[in-house]
Amino acid sequence: MTRSFRDQFSEYLFEQKTLRKETPYLLVLFGTALAVRLIGITYGLPVTYNSTEYFIAKHALSMGARHTLEPLYFIYPTLFTYLMAITYGMYFFAGLLGGRFHSPEDFALEFLIQPGNFYLLGRLVVAVIFILGLFYAYRALRLFLEPRSALFFTLMLLFSYNLQFYTFWMVPDALLFTGTLVVFYYILKWQKMGVRTREVLWAGLICGLTLSAKYNAGFLTLGLLGAVFLETQPRRGKPLLRHLAFAVGGIGLGFLLGTPYALLAFHRFREGFLTIWAQSEYDYNITTGLPYVWEMLEMVKTEWLWGLVLLLVFFWSIIRPQKKYWPFLLVVYPTFLIVGSWEKKGLDYLLIIFPLLTLQAGFIYAEHIKGRWPRRLVVGLAIALLLPSVLHVAYLKFRFTRTDTRQQATQWIVKHIPPESTLCYDHYHYDLNLIDIDRFAEYGAGSRFLSPTLKARLRQLEGLPNRYRLVSPRHRLNRPRWPTTADSIRHSRNPFLVEQFSHPFKSLKDLQEEGVQWLILNSETFQKYLLNPEPPENNPLRHLFVAKRQFYEAVFRNLQPIRVFRPDWKTPGPEIRIYRLSPANGENASP
């Protein structure tokens, strides 16, 4: 559809006038969203509670230290890492001007010892991105709903438990959320007003940038291309080819802008993509269940009544298919089918479907409920849906303001276990506020990137009360220890499996031979081995799973914990169990 400049300018003025009229609704939305996002935003700081936060921050800082945009590892697409690199660069120069930092070593030292500000900056950036996504959700809903109804469905997004939890951290999920809503804002606009070439290019660019933030946006490209095909009139000839070409070109350009080394270093990019795919396919999480059924049950369990509504919307699109639903279906169903088949479970992999199902719920309300059901009934249902979600998120935020089990365990360790004792913590990342200077200065994976000056500065901190020798629960082999299976040759080409077989778990005897005096267990790790069923025979990680289960069974059978920290209704966190393997340097420890 071709429109004159005058028509486009008139439409722009109308949109701005409409937004000004709806300022009270937007103020309610933004004010509520800002309050929700800021409450508990310092949870866990300065410790690493989310391993992706550490991964992103480390790689963003390494780009500045190495003066290159090339990532160390190609596990994730790099747009969000670049965004954080820019943020940290601004923080560094502001610190120089304000006197907080006097050299790059001061900056690096703060990240290594007290990284809280780095994570906090990232969480603030994520909060702004998330609120921007809510704005586009409201604009998309306003295309077919009146302001109050649009505000209601936007608030349901704001008070989605899964969206709040998984976009709380310094992770790219908020970019996935916002990018998806921007793309579908244009798709819904085309359904109402027709396709415009400029908007097709812009939507393609946003789609590509979203994909360069998180691979879970892969099927967003199908939704966009499907919408371009369905909404272009006539659906043939040059207009269709032009729009499809602009969409594909925009997607490619956006992806390469955010992840340029997918082209510049394709082999390493491919290896990184295969690594993250194999991790999702073969690895296991703390939760497990029947494929596809688990995802549905977990959605209802975490979202309560609203989760049930989203499930009904999910099946409604199959029962009552319509042309305007197809862009949604091309994203939601392939994502659900692929992610549901993975061994590793988690609703964070399905996060893209939450805003899309919410938009579809708005569609269904506009077509089948609005004006047909009694007003009091509609208001009552709205309150019944919104209030439990508000209370659920409020409870989550309340817990984020509390001292959790990991902080309690850290305080006990510092008080009862002498500094420089040898500890082994079984979790896959260190979320206890304990420091091992040698891990940074000598044997850690990133120690080779630290300058001699910085290592000398680290040595000056050896008198810290929370300094300990932290022993890894995994071996570090030069060659992978492959299982004797027919598939071992095929597995040897998989970078994720090479990493797993090069770092098998240590036994209790191995830890004692290394001089480990204290063993600390985290339920987020041991429960996935003790509670989950064994992986199927075709999972190459099966024997590693069995070995780790036997390790935990031996610990629980033969050792008594000195101290256990358990979560309760007001204390968040995993269960932390502390065992004494050797009495040396621990005589003053007490239950």
Number of helices: 27
Taken from the alpha-carbon principal axes, the silhouette is: globular
Q: Structural class, please?
A: mainly alpha
Domain module count = 2
Mean pLDDT: 90
Q: Which ranges are low-confidence, i.e. pLDDT below 50, for 5 or more consecutive residues? A: 584-591
Sheet with most strands: strand arrangement:
2-1-3-5-4
- Count of beta strands: 5
> Could you describe the largest sheet, including whether it forms a barrel?
5 strands, mixed
Strand content: under 5%
What portion of residues is helical?
55-70%
From the alpha carbons, calculate the radius of gyration and give it in angstroms. 26 Å
Q: Gap between N and C termini, in Å?
A: 75 Å
Key descriptive features of the protein:
591 residues, mainly alpha, 2 domains, 62% helix, globular
Protein described:
With 591 residues, the chain is mainly alpha-helical. The protein has two domains: 328 residues, no CATH class; 176 residues, no CATH class. 62% of the residues lie in helices and 3% in strands. Strands 2-1-3-5-4 form a five-stranded mixed sheet. Helix 15 packs across helix 16. The C terminus is likely disordered.
Task: Break the fold down into its secondary structure elements and pairings.
Blueprint: H1 5-21, H2 23-38, H3 51-66, H4 79-98, H5 104-113, H6 116-142, H7 147-158, H8 161-166, H9 173-193, H10 197-211, H11 220-231, H12 237-258, H13 261-264, H14 266-282, H15 293-303, H16 305-319, H17 326-340, H18 353-369, H19 375-400, H20 405-416, E1 422-425, H21 437-443, H22 452-459, E2 469-471, H23 488-491, H24 495-502, H25 508-513, E3 518-522, H26 523-530, H27 542-558, E4 563-565, E5 576-580
Parallel strand pairs: 1-2, 1-3
Antiparallel strand pairs: 3-5, 4-5
